[in-house]
Amino acid sequence: MKFRVVIAYDEVAKAYSAVCPELPGCASAGDTVLEAKLNIREAIELYLQPADIEIPANATLDEVTIG
Questions:
Q1: S-S: 30 plus which of 20, 36, 54, 57, CB 3.0-4.6 Å?
Q2: pTM flag (> 0.85)
Q3: d(CA 36, CA 54)
Q4: Is the C-alpha dihedral spanning 30, 31, 32, 33 positive or negative?
Q5: What are the sequence ranges of the domains in the chain?
Q6: How far from 30 is each of 1, 33, 43, 46, CA to CA, in Å?
Q7: What is the pLDDT of residues 3-61, one digit of tens each?
Q8: What is the spatial distance between Cα 5 and Cα 56, in angstroms, rounded to a whole number?
Q9: How far apart are CA 23 and CA 32, in angstroms?
């Protein structure tokens, strides 16, 4: 699966910011473009990890594969 990533240099922080628009709040940064790309990749992987959830007794849990 591919995600779009917006990378921009921040003059104040003197670093590159990286944001994934499709995943609200998923952002990272790095001192170089390459570091920002590697860091946002890790952020996306962490963002997409399943969380522990409680489901009601009358519900079932299933999975869907995309891509």
A1: 36
A2: no
A3: 35
A4: positive
A5: 6-48
A6: 23, 7, 12, 17
A7: 999 999 999 999 999 999 999 999 999 999 999 999 999 999 999 998 899 999 999 99
A8: 36
A9: 22
3-state secondary structure 13-67: CCEEEEECCCCCCCEEEECCHHHHHHHHHHHHHHHHCCCCCCCCCCCCCCCCCCC
**Residue 49 is encoded by which pair of tokens?**
């990890």
Q: Give the DSSP H or E segment for 8.
A: strand 6-10
How far apart are alpha carbons 26 and 41 in whole angstroms?
A: 10
State the CB neighbour count (10 A cutoff) for residue 5: 20
Structure tokens at 47: 């963002």
Strands 27-30 and 6-10: unpaired
